[in-house]
Amino acid sequence: MRTTLVRLTRAAGLAALVSLSGAIAQADGLLESRLGALLGQEREAVRVVPSARMLALTSPPPVTARDIQTGLASVAYDRAFLADQPSATGGAEWECLSEALYFEARGESVRGVFAVAEVILNRVDSRAYPNSICGVVNQGTGRRHACQFSYTCDGNAETIHEPAAWTSVGKVARLLIDGAPRELTAGATHYHTKAVSPSWARRFPRTASIGSHYFYRQPTRTASN
Questions:
Q1: Which pairing describes strands 213-216 and 206-210: parallel, antiparallel, or unpaired?
Q2: Distances (CA, A) of 149 to 132, 138, 212
């Protein structure tokens, strides 16, 4: 009798396990079916989103000057980095810097354009030069052999013929005006192309060689006793 009860108990337990397994399998199947339906709806929703919109949603936001200032990002001196920056605009100071970069450095690499921009802003910060970008760029204009930037005295109209280049240099100007670090030229206030050798270059310490330009820092004058 006892043996029979044990066998019946075991059979009941096995039946319960089989029933539970069946219920679990049924629940898994139902869950899988519902998930498949949801994923199908999601795929359909994604399919109808325009590719340009999908790219905008999935691409990381562009690095801004604020990101660079706060240490969240750094400048990458390449065309891909610059292409990711938003189109730039600004007032007179931005216009002056963009114009100088266009006529002085548009044929340079991205690094070279940043370097020339650093020189202009370093001059703005120096007491030896005007305290505005436009003042620095136009210093000496109209006086014989006094132009600091040759394009302002070459007699040609400052006409923009390459819109893509203008857009690129404008982005560089915007980043630096907004506070991107000047880390390429070690405080340079002068530069010249490697094809010439001005007399002052023998007296000023050279700080960098970037692209077709050498960069120099004007020596600091100290008071004599």
A1: antiparallel
A2: 15, 7, 16
What helix, strand, coil percent values describe the chain, rounded to 5?
55, 5, 40
Query: 3-class SS at 206?
Result: strand
C-beta of residue 185 within 8 angstroms of C-beta of residue 118: yes
Q: What is the pTM of this model?
A: 0.69
Mind listing the pLDDT tens digit for each residue in 93-114?
Answer: 999 999 999 999 999 999 999 9
Helix (H, G, I), strand (E, B) or coil at 88: coil
The helix (run of H) or strand (run of E) holding residue 213 is strand 213-216
Angle at alpha carbon of residue 124, lines to 132 and 91, rounded to 5°: 35
Residue at token pair 């990101």: 67
Cα–Cα distance, 87 to 199 (Å, whole number): 39
